[in-house]
Design goal:
Elements (H helix, E strand, L loop, with lengths): L8 E2 L2 H13 L8 H12 L7 E3 L2 H8 L3 H13 L3 E5 L6 H4 L11 E6 L1 H7 L2 E3 L6 E3 L49 E3 L2 E3 L11 H11 L12 H17 L8 H7 L1 H5 L4 H14 L11 H27 L8 H16 L2 H5 L5 H9 L4 H10 L1 H26 L1
C-alpha cells in the first residue's frame, strides 16, 4: 500500500504502537504474534514523531532483535497486511550518492509510514474526518461527562450583550478549547486560597500503604534463589571485575550485568580464581571468544551456574539415596525373590534339572550317519516325537522302511 492508495490514516509512533498491540491482540491476522510486536516496537523507536516515517533498516532490525532477516521481512509484511504500514518510499538500486554528487554507491532506502486502519477506529468509536492517509480523528469534549467535584450553585451573572447568538447545539469541527482535568492528588483551589485539605493522604492503615510496606519488606533473591546480602554483593562485585579483566569474551556485558550474575558466587564465598576458572571453562565449552562472540555473555554464565546447581542437587540426591538404601537381600523384593527361588528348587524334578538342552549342532551330527538306521528305528518306536526332532522326517522314514524290509526277509 502506498500513501495515496492506503485506506489507513496517518499517525505518530505512540498511537501507532498502541493500535498495533490492539490489532495483534484482536487476532485480525492469523500469523501475527509477539515477534510482530517486537518488530513494531523497533520501528516505533526509530520513527519520526512529526511525519511518522521510519527507514526499513532490514539488517539493523535483524541484528537488534537477534532474529533472521527472513523473519523480519515476514512480520513487516504482516504489518502491511494489517494496514499498519504504508510505503512512503520504495527501495531501489538507484545510486543516491551519484545524484548528490558524491562518490561511491548507496541504494535508495525503503521508508515506511505509520498508519492506523479503519478497523481500529471503528472499534474505539473514533470520529474520523476525511478518507485515506490524510484522514484525521476528531474528539468532541462537549459530550464528555463532567467529572469535576460538585460545588455550591452560584447564581450566574449574564454580562453578554442582549443580541448574542446561542449556537451551543451546533456541531463544529473547530479545535476544542482547553479543558481542565481533576487528577487524584492535585491541589485544589477553594475560595482563591491554596489548600491541601482536599488532597488524599495515605494513612498507615490504608491498603495502598500496606502494599507498599509489604513490597519494601520483601527481600531480593539471586538467580539461584539465595537471599541477597551486602557482603555477598560486595564480593560479587569484586568477582565480576576479575572475570571481566581475565576473560575478554565477557566484556560485551555491562559491569552491572556481570555483578548480578556473580551475586550467587559471592553468596557462596567463591574466590577470584574459582570464579575466573568457572568463566573460562564455560567459554571453552561453547567456544566463546574463539569461534563465537556472544552478544550477552552474562546469560551464558547464568545458564552455566544453573546447570552446575542442578548437577550438584542431582549428585546430592544420589548420595542420599545410596546412603539410605537397603541391600537387595534385605529388601522386600529381594526376600520375595529368594522365597520363590527356594520353592522352585524344592518342587523341581531331577529330570528337569539334569535334562540337557538339545542344540542344532546335535541334530546335524545325528542326521549325518544314515547307516545308524537300526538305532533310529528303535528310538522312533520308543519316542516318536523326540526321534523326529533329533533325526528329522527323512531319516526316520528311511529307518522305518529298512526295518520293515529286514523283518519281512527274516
Amino acid at each position: 500500500m502506498e500513501l495515496d492508495t492506503t485506506a489507513s490514516r496517518h499517525t505518530g509512533p505512540r498511537n501507532w504502537l498502541r493500535s498495533v498491540e490492539w490489532l495483534i491482540a484482536a487476532d485480525l491476522h492469523p500469523k501475527a504474534n509477539q515477534t510482530t510486536l517486537a518488530v513494531a516496537c523497533d520501528l516505533a523507536k526509530r520513527m519520526d514523531y512529526s511525519t511518522g516515517h521510519v527507514r526499513y533498516d532490514l539488517e539493523g532490525t535483524a541484528a537488534r532483535l537477534d532474529i533472521d532477516r527472513s523473519n523480519v521481512k515476514r512480520h513487516v509484511s504482516y504489518l502491511r497486511q494489517l494496514g499498519a504500514l504504508a510505503w512512503a518510499q520504495r527501495g531501489t538500486r538507484r545510486n543516491v550518492r551519484r545524484e548528490q554528487g558524491l562518490p561511491g554507491y548507496a541504494a535508495t532506502a525503503t521508508v515506511y509510514a505509520a498508519a492506523i486502519p479503519a478497523a481500529y477506529d471503528h472499534a474505539m468509536g473514533h470520529l474520523i474526518v476525511g478518507t485515506g492517509y490524510g484522514a484525521r480523528i476528531v474528539k468532541d469534549y462537549r459530550e464528555m461527562p463532567d467529572t469535576r467535584p460538585s460545588r455550591t450553585p452560584v447564581e450566574p451573572v449574564d454580562n453578554a450583550p442582549s443580541g448574542r447568538v446561542d449556537n451551543s447545539a451546533k456541531r463544529s469541527f473547530a479545535p476544542p478549547s482547553l479543558t481542565s482535568a481533576n487528577q487524584e492528588g492535585k491541589v485544589q483551589m477553594v475560595g482563591g486560597v491554596t489548600t491541601t485539605a482536599t488532597r488524599s493522604h495515605k494513612t498507615a492503615n490504608s491498603p495502598s500503604s500496606k502494599t507498599t510496606a509489604q513490597a519494601g519488606s520483601k527481600k531480593r533473591a539471586t538467580l539461584l534463589g539465595a537471599i541477597v546480602t551486602a557482603a555477598g554483593m560486595q564480593l560479587g562485585n569484586k568477582l565480576a571485575r576479575a572475570i571481566r579483566r581475565r576473560a575478554p569474551w565477557t566484556r560485551k556485558a555491562t559491569h552491572d550485568q556481570l555483578r548480578w550474575v556473580c551475586a550467587d558466587m559471592g553468596e557462596q564465598q567463591w574466590t577470584e580464581d574459582q570464579a575466573v576458572r568457572f568463566a573460562v571453562e564455560t567459554g571453552h565449552q561453547h567456544a566463546a571468544g574463539f569461534a563465537w562472540q556472544p552478544d550477552h555473555p552474562h546469560r551464558l554464565i547464568a545458564a552455566a551456574l544453573r546447570t552446575a546447581e542442578n548437577s550438584q542437587q542431582d549428585q546430592a540426591q544420589v548420595e542420599f539415596d545410596v546412603a539410605h538404601s537397603v541391600a537387595w537381600e534385605d529388601s522386600t523384593a529381594g526376600q520375595e525373590a529368594a522365597r520363590l527361588s527356594s520353592l522352585t528348587a524344592l518342587f523341581a524334578t531331577a529330570d528337569t534339572e539334569t535334562e540337557p538342552q538339545r542344540s542344532d549342532e546335535d541334530r546335524l551330527r545325528a542326521r549325518l550317519d544314515w547307516n545308524n538306521w537300526p538305532a533310529v528305528a528303535h528310538h522312533y518306536a520308543t519316542d516318536p516325537d523326540d526321534a523326529l526332532d533329533l533325526y528329522g522326517v527323512r531319516l526316520c522314514t528311511y529307518a522305518i522302511r529298512m526295518d520293515s524290509r529286514q523283518g519281512a526277509s527274516a
